Every structure is written in C-alpha cells, then in structure tokens.
Amino acid sequence: MRYLIILALALINFHLFAQHDHDHKRPIVFPDIPGYKTLKCDFHQHTVFSDGSVWPNIRVQEALKDGLDAISITDHIEYQPHIDDIPHPDRNRSYQIAKEEAKNKDLIVIRGSEVTRSMPPGHTNAIFIQDANKLFISDSIAVFKEAKDQGAFIFWNHPNWTAQIPSGMASVTETHKHLIKEGLLHGIEVVNDVTYSDEAIQIALDYNLTMIGTSDIHGLIDWQYHVPHGGHRPVTLVFAKDKSEAGIKEGLVNRRTAVWFNNTLIGRPEYLVPLIEQSVTVASATYKSKTSVLLVSLENVSDADFIMENMTDYTFHRNADVFTIEANTITDIEIKTIEKLEGVKLKLKVLNAVTAPKTHPEIIWDVKVE
Ligand SMILES: [Zn+2]
Ligand SMILES: [Zn+2]
User: Fold this and answer.
1) How far is the CA of 64 from the centre of ligand 1 (A)?
2) How high is the mean pLDDT of the chain?
3) In degrees, to the nearest 5, what angle opens at C-alpha 263 toward C-alphas 260 and 267?
4) Looking at residue 226, what is its pLDDT?
C-alpha cells in the first residue's frame, strides 16, 4: 500500500512537472521573418553603478541564460545612491565590465545611459553612445544634442510611470514634440518592467516612434519575472538585416521592432503579422475517415501561447471559438466543413497580439487538404 501511495505521488509529481516543462524552456525563442533576423534585446537595465543591486557581470549571465542577442546596461548618470560605497568617477564602468564579461560569448553589449529628469521630458535612455561621462549636462535639450552627436538612439522611458504621471496615462508635452521634431527622440517604451501602455503605443504610431519594451531590471530577472517557471522578461524583438551592433541600430532607427511582454506581442502589423505567420504554420490537414471533420495540426515554433479567436463561419469539433495554440508544440484543431473541401482559409484573430490600442491582427492560414 505504501509503495502504491509513493508511486501515485510520483506520478502526480511527474504530471505536474511535465505540464510545466514541455513548452517553456528558458531561452526566449522566436523565428526570423522574411528578410530579417529576429534579435531578442533588452535595452534598459541597472546595476550597482546606479540604483541596481547586482554587479554588471550578472546582467550578462542572465542575458545568456535567456538566450538574448543584445543588451544595454543603462545606469542613471545623475542618480547615484551607491556612490559612497562604490565611488566611480567614470560613468562607463558598468558597460566596460559587462563588455569584458561578454567577451567570446554570443551576446552584443551596447553602451548606454539613462538620462534622469523630471517630467517633462522624464527619463530617457541613450544607447549606442561613445562616452557616458559627456552626458553629465544639466540642460535637458543640450544633453540630448550631445547624445545625438555621439550617434545615440534615444527613447522615452516609462512614459506611464505613476511616480511622475499619477494617472498612468502617457501623454506628449510640448517638450517631447520639440525633441521629436529636432530628431532627438526616436523611440518610446510601450512596456516597462511589469507595465504596459496603450497610450504609449498610440504615441508611437502618431509620432512615428520605435516601439520598445524593456525590463528596467534593478534586482534579479528570475525573481522579478518568475523565471524559469513559465515567466519571461520583457524584450524588444529587433528585425535586423544582420546580427551586429550596426544591424540592431539600423533596425531600431527604421522602427522594425515588436515587444514581447507577459505572453503578449505588440508591434506594427507589417512586422507582427509575418512574425506570427512564421511562428504558426500548418503541419498537416486531413479529413478524419468517413467524416467531413478536417483535422488541422498547427505547429508553433515560438515562445508565445497564441490565444486565437475563430473568425471563419465554421465551428470546431474540439474547441470553442477561442482557443490556445501552445508555445513550441503542435496543436490539433478540428474544423467541421460539412462537405469535404480541397482547402480552407483559416482566419484567426490573434487576441494576445496588439497592433494598436485594443486592436488585434486577423491572419489567414491557407490550409491545403492532403
Ligand atoms: Zn527611469
Ligand atoms: Zn531605469
């Protein structure tokens, strides 16, 4: 009897583990899209060299575990709560230490800084800079000009931050309009840490800014995002011509991004739709014998659990009109086509993909019956 109980417990245990483990491995996985590599990047992170809690080498190790292609460590230039314990006259130190740690590893480390101002303009990140020390400028416009002169890509951090905007409603001020007009502001965080902003997405669309999503991590990625137990950090997916620092910058400047956040994909449809099309493909489609029920196997090679809504006139034999295509696996659906057809246009609305506030792309899969 005792052995039976142990066996039963072991089976229950195995089942729980199997359920959790089969689809979400730690490295973040998304396929390339036609013409571009899909690079996973986190451009906003802190260390003890500003108000973070870890040494820069830990940021590199976390990124390698998460399978990232690029990171930027963006310590605050001005806000330095640890300066008495860790005096460092050179604001490039966290970058240098991370760069050294990443040597001979498959990770690009981009030099960056967080320019820390009250609203407006609020906080911004300047990445691809040459020398962080030269950004120690109190005038808000002058600091952006210096960053631009260094070749920076500059984005607006957490425009929805309730410490600066108690309503959480991101909105553009005259200062931001001026910066955008002068070519001194190129992107905006639509996701920061555990927050998401429909208003920031709308600002990105209205002002032609690049959509960015970042962890803004201060502690540990694992603790903040429930990794490796199914959670993941927010990342910006950059669609780049090649995997290089220059390739990432070119992709950012040309707004070729999507944001992966809390099992949600956010981005312009011209990149989000191909990303979903490459992620989910029809593996097979056959009629079950003597029936007009079409068995369609959908293979998902991405880390997203896609939540789909049936937009066809058909009803399904296994699912209601809303169903999930799980990450990194094959999901079978059964379509009742009433008569046997040579093919079906499977039109699905992707509920956990966002192309504009409250807007989800509808994608058609051309299913050919074998
Ligand atoms: Zn900030
Ligand atoms: Zn920050």
Assistant:
1) 24
2) 94
3) 40
4) 94
Report how far ligand 2's centroid is from the alpha carbon of 368 (Å): 49
Give the three-state DSSP class for 195: strand
Ligand 1 centre distance from Cα of residue 138 (Å): 16
What is the pLDDT confidence band of residue 115, given thresholds at 50, 70 and 90?
very high
How much of the chain exceeds pLDDT 70, in percent? 94
What SS3 state is found at 223?
helix
- pLDDT confidence of residue 20: 43
Cα of 10 from ligand 1 centre, angstroms? 47
What are the backbone dihedrals phi and psi of residue 251, each rounded to the nearest 5 degrees, phi first?
Answer: -65, -40
CA of 278 to the centre of ligand 1 (A): 34
Question: For residue 23, is pLDDT > 60?
Answer: no
CA of 287 to the centre of ligand 2 (A): 54
Ligand nearest to the backbone CA of 217? 2
List 330's β-bridge partners, or say none.
Answer: 299
Kindly state the average pLDDT of the residues 169-185: 97
**Residue written as tokens 């800079």?**
129
Nearby residues of 56 by Cβ (< 8 Å), 6 or more positions away? 47, 49, 73, 94, 95, 97, 98, 101
**Spatial contact of 355 and 272, defined as CB atoms under 8 Å apart:** yes
Region 259-273: mean pLDDT is: 98
What is the pTM (predicted TM-score) of this model?
0.93
Find the helix packing angle between 56-65 and 93-101, rounded to 10°: 40
